[in-house]
Amino acid sequence: MRTTVVALMIAALALAGCQDKPKTEAPTQPQAAGQPAGHPPVGAPMPGAPAGDPHAGMKPADIPAGVPTKKATVVQTIDADVYTYIEAKGDDGKNVWMALPKTKVDKGASIEYPSDVPALPKFTSKTLNRTFDNILFVSGIKILK
């Protein structure tokens, strides 16, 4: 009798474990830690943003007052999609590459650019099929007269 009761209890537990559980949906995108309630998920497109390239339509920004800058002379420019790549020779004699939203700037132009931007090493541009040893991504430059 005792064996039968134990066998029935094991069978009942096994059947209970096999029953369908209520299904719960996992959130599609977890809320990033530290974000306020209702904040869009990190990495999600901004509401009203055009589909495709998130940088499309970007315009160069003015360098805000108080931001440290350096002066340089444009050696060459390469326009690609939404960016302009500029190689410039600084007053210190060193060449620097920078990328910024598409900007019209001529070879030989004197420019000023933010100097507090860290260089990104070994950046590969898929558009240009080229790797830059170091490049600055700046929001804009000032073309000096």
UniProtKB/TrEMBL annotation:
Spans annotated as Disordered: 20-64
Key words of the record: Lipoprotein, Signal
Domain of life where this protein originates: Bacteria
Start-end of Pro residues biased regions: 38-48
Biased composition (Low complexity): 26-37, 49-58
Signal sequence range: 1-16
Identification of the protein by name: Lipoprotein
Organism: Trichlorobacter ammonificans
